[in-house]
Amino acid sequence: MSERDLTDGFHLVVEALKRNGIDTIFAVAGIPITDLLRLAQAEGIRTFTFRHESSAGNAAAIAGFLTRKPGLCMTVSAPGFLNGMVALANATTNCFPMILMSGSSDRAIVDLEQGDYEELDQLNAARPYAKAAYRINRPQDIGIGIARAIRAALSGRPGGVYLDLTAEVLGSALDAETGRKSLVTVVDPAPPQPPAPASVARALDLLASALRPLAILGKGAAYARAEAEIRSFLEAAGIPFLPMSMAKGLLPDDHPLSAAAARSFAIGNADVVMLVGARLNWLLSHGRPPLWSEATRFVQVDISPTEIDSNRAIEAPLVGDIKSAFAALNAARKPGGIKRQAVWLDEIDKRKRQNIERMAARLNADPSPMNFSSALRAVRNALAGHPEVTIVNEGANTLDFARNIIDMPLPRRRLDSGTWGVMGIGMGYAIGAAAVTGKPVVAIEGDSAFGFSGMEIETICRYGLPVVTVVFNNNGVYRGDPQGLPYSPTGLIRGARYDKIIEAFGGAGYHAEDTPTLTSAVSEALASGKPALINAVIDPTAGTESGHIGSLNPQSALAQKK
Ligand code: ADP
Ligand code: MG
Known about the structure:
Bound molecules: adenosine-5'-diphosphate, magnesium ion
CATH topology of the largest domain: Rossmann fold
Largest sheet: 6 strands, parallel
CATH superfamily of the largest domain: Thiamin diphosphate (ThDP)-binding fold, Pyr/PP domains
Strand content: 15-25%
Number of strands: 19
Shape: globular
């Protein structure tokens, strides 16, 4: 047989990816995947290589959320794999479709624990944190292995899939014809799953009995791209809604039915709540008092049957995909079947107006140094007229304030700490979003949060991505330390100039100590379409401990007794 009739693991992986429309890889190069990345790039797959696997994995995960194709992250063995696992676990937790492909060392040596280079039983390490985990042991299984990974990531509730590629399989030769025949094109990995008509009727009946109905929209609804169907249902029935943070913009935040500015009132007083791709987890106080009433009755639309009844009894489950479910609700809804509850809508409006008025004083103040509200107002002013911008947001106070102050006009433009409230997603999400949308990204980062992925500023500059990072610099986690004292566990260096970091890589650095400078820096950076980092100086006394979730921070029982 001549050499021309042979293929190998590297070529088969690249062919399998191309055949399934996976056109982008987020990775860190090294043994044994370096040549795989080179080949993929030569074959027209876009490759973004990072400084740390967590960021590469976070970029892949958010690319999966935004494109509904599994985001692909590739890493080296053991330590690189483990760095990528944080992102894979986070993707699974957030229901983002992602595949982590890691090279691995010699099975014979690893399994006898004989001490190979970067030895680790990666497959078993990945299992508890992944939706599915597979290993490919023969080159002829590459096609089927990648097909299984794609289907597992996308089908039903999306999630993170681990795929183990041994160095041996990558380097193995295979007869080219056998190789070609072994490749698989995945057909319809996430088919529509309409709910049963009886479930639709039950949900409509419960909603028709409501005097104070409320819909809570989650990022599952954003992923499902069901905004048109959801909007027509809510508008026709007159049901107010609350968006979870990554569902902001599904219906615009300034929509008259938005109850966001009256959140606690709406939740506490609703008699029937419709959960739409939102889990009743800690972010919604598990549906328990004091925020929630014991009397509230629930409709839940979710693709995962076991999500139902996870925290509260669900009287009307709608198990299926949200787009099909709302198409069915719209089709089965009788005109006037759900009556517009004018008293309830007026009550919510009154609360909204009161709360907005109360917030206005804080929002319009212009203290020096800036606080979170005034700095966010400055950023918001620069964002006006740029609905195409994707916002990435992490931090504690920076996250809490930005979620409330930065309105989203369009769906899937707000990406943040998500279900875990994780720190470290910032630059990975920003790069992933810029890579797949081709549109500008503004990352609004707490100074501590930024530190977890800050070295990826080099990645942003290397690829010339239109990412504007605004570091809310208050000298610490939650707040800064007072001058003169030694650094506390939450303190960070005082007066840091984060803008100098990006200058090292040829990007544009800005330093802003007041709101006009901050607004013009964001505007100028956005207009340039180039990488920029703005060091926004925030009053070090402005933040609160643990942001809005201080109640989750345990206090010593002894201290409380004193
Ligand atoms: P949020 O944090 O915004 O409240 P969650 O991540 O808690 O959102 O909830 C998302 C929910 O959406 C999950 O329970 C998931 O099963 C569900 N989901 C994801 N995709 C779909 C879909 N296409 N159709 C229906 N439900 C979906
Ligand atoms: Mg801080």
